[in-house]
Write a structure and sequence with these properties.
Blueprint: E1 4-8, H1 12-24, E2 28-32, H2 38-44, E3 49-53, H3 61-70, E4 79-83, H4 89-97, E5 101-104, H5 109-123, E6 131-134, E7 137-140, E8 145-148, E9 151-153, H6 157-167, E10 173-174, H7 176-184, H8 194-206, E11 215-218, E12 222-225
Parallel strand pairs: 1-2, 1-3, 3-4, 4-5
Antiparallel strand pairs: 6-7, 7-8, 8-9, 10-12, 11-12
Helix pairs in contact: 1-5, 6-8
């Protein structure tokens, strides 16, 4: 199952940008506009991490942090608090209230995603086991989705499996026989030259219509995914 993010902020434009950034990295995102229904949503729908603004209308993000930390069911939920520009002191207040991390606006959406990933690696690393990332390429094994430069890449099943194999060891050169084994096992009826066909399709898919050398041909040796 992909990691679930509950995103709470009354700024719709920020929610949209953050949701896109999280979904590009394979997260599933739900959102709320205020803090009043957070605890109920967490209990009914669940979440693996809570990302919320400190200055929510009604129940503030700080109050939500304190409430969650006192709840025996939710107390271990990772929380990232978003603090308004010019309110840097609130960062310390947020940490004291129970947030695991705080970011002061403005920030880049990808920074929020990175902070969340770092939290999950420490607190629940199994949630990220299905994700592979090399440079601007992201592959989600469970959702069977690939993104590059925040754009989804459509691949056939063989090309997906081939990319997954290459992404496990970026920079390593694999022979055609090794790549063939990754796709068909010991099937002797498959010609190794079939790998060239699938590499060509994979290149076309992940290049986004541009000429690049993400997948490198090494003469006499095989193929390698660039290690960026």
């Amino acid at each position: 199952m992909s990691a679930r993010v509950l995103l709470v902020d009354d700024d719709e434009s920020l929610r949209v940008v953050l949701q896109k950034a999280f979904e590009t990295e394979g997260f599933r995102v739900s959102h709320l506009m205020n803090g009043a229904a957070i605890e109920e949503r967490l209990r009914t729908a669940g979440a693996d991490v809570l990302v919320l603004s400190s200055d929510l209308p009604g129940l503030s993000g700080l109050d939500v942090c304190r409430t969650v930390r006192l709840d025996p069911v939710l107390s271990r939920l990772p929380i990232v608090l978003l603090v308004p520009s010019g309110e840097g002191q609130l960062r310390l207040t947020g940490l004291a209230a129970g947030a695991d991390d705080c970011l002061v606006k403005p920030f880049s959406p990808i920074e929020v995603v990175v902070r969340v990933k770092n939290l999950l690696r420490r607190m629940n690393p199994a949630l990220l086991d299905h994700m592979l990332k090399v440079g601007d390429l992201t592959l989600d094994r469970e959702a069977h989705r690939v993104h590059r430069q925040k754009r989804e890449v459509k691949l056939g099943p063989k090309e997906f499996k081939l990319l997954e194999f290459l992404m496990r060891s970026p920079g390593k050169v694999y022979s055609r026989s090794e790549l063939k084994a990754s796709l068909w096992g010991d099937d002797a009826t498959v010609d190794e030259r079939a790998i060239d066909v699938h590499i060509g399709r994979l290149r076309k898919g992940i290049s986004l219509g541009k000429a690049d050398k993400v997948i490198r041909t090494v003469r006499g040796a095989g193929y390698s995914l660039g290690d960026f």
